[in-house]
Amino acid sequence: MSTVDTLFRNARLVDGRTVDVAVCDGRIISIASHSQSPVAARETLDLTGRLVLPGLVDGHIHLDKGFVGDDWKSHRPCTAGFSVRERVKFEKEALAGARPIAVRAAALIDLCVAHGTTQMRSHVDIDLQVGLRNLEQVMAARDAHRNKVSVQIVAFPQSGIVTSPGVAGLLDEAVRAGADLVGGLDPAGYDADIDGHLDVIFGIADRRGVGIDIHLHDGGLLGIFEIENIARRTKALGLGGKVTISHAYALGEVPRDAVQRTAQLLAEAGVAILTNAPGAHAFPPVLLLRDAGVNVFAGNDNIRDSWWPYGDGDLLERAMIVGYRSGFSTDADLAAAFNMVTTNAAQALGLRDYGVAKGAAADFVVLDAQHVQEAVVARPRPRDVYKNGRLVAHGGTIVTAAR
Ligand SMILES: Nc1ccnc(=O)[nH]1
């Protein structure tokens, strides 16, 4: 074998093996026991048996909303119970006085990368007020930081589609301008027109060949009705594997036999479910869905923004929160929580070269833990984060060469 760029010696993999990982041109070209690993390397690093996790994948984040990198903005509660419409109104007011997206998105990206995120899916607001401006700025942030993290972008109609005439056209333009997926928002609860809303986004997905990731806060049987509509449309258009329903609170609110039936439809259609196990809210039953064959994955969603003041970008903490709120205790359950911020999220994002495996991109996180279960419950720090084989974060900060 010719000389490799970097040889990572004594890497402990999640399957318990201790191996040498050889990286060339940003890819893992071999994983082998010490005696069989390449001898010639431009750089050799001894990982001393530390655990090597695949790069963490944030399945749902909002890079245009966070106040990380800005002054603290005190949370303003809704006036009479939670309302998406009022939340959006308060958010508009708070964002009017915020620093530019270039500054805030950069700070949020650095926060996430420092904890081990190497891939993310960001929703970006598209509405009549901001038009495509947020999209342009998040795309610029994506490009400016692409040596640290890969960002997928969803064109997200945060102020509705049917009740906001003109947004349908903007979403189509957003996809032509480079958004990777088209989003949606509570077809019933926000737009009061389930088919009108879904016709627009499924139309764009079908015409433009992109995936869908729809925010669905609508609860109870109304939410279930919408979820089943989304599953039917996905199947009819052959979009299996490219559609996500984010939040899907309804799945956490109706009786389990109703969830079983809906889970079957989701599995058959190839629709994934994202959850961040939000605060005091009901959320989907992870294991029930997984056992029915649904891909369930996780993401941080809101990080210190108008929606809620929490979040530090750490996906191991997110896995812990999902596990904690789901009542996970066994090793198998903890591994399920871990998979939600790694392989399941990678599958939902359609990443083909993911994992600590030969041929994959050399994106990984090195930390002091014996196994993934300990990684989830203890969230050990410090961590070394590698993107395409290069060190991008160390001891909680971004290494300067990656800025
Ligand atoms: N969880 C959410 C974040 C941002 N926008 C939403 O509609 N929902």
TrEMBL record:
The keyword Metal-binding does not apply. InterPro entries: Amidohydro_3, Metal-dep_hydrolase_composite, Metal_Hydrolase, Metallo-hydrolase_Enzymes. This is Cytosine deaminase. Keywords: Hydrolase. PANTHER family: BLL3847 PROTEIN, CYTOSINE DEAMINASE. Coiled coil: none annotated. Signal peptide: none annotated. Its EC number is 3.5.4.1, 3.5.4.21. GO terms for molecular function: creatinine deaminase activity; cytosine deaminase activity. It is an enzyme of class 3 (hydrolase). It comes from Bradyrhizobium elkanii. It comes from the Bacteria. Residues 43-392 form the Amidohydrolase domain. It holds the Pfam family Amidohydro_3.
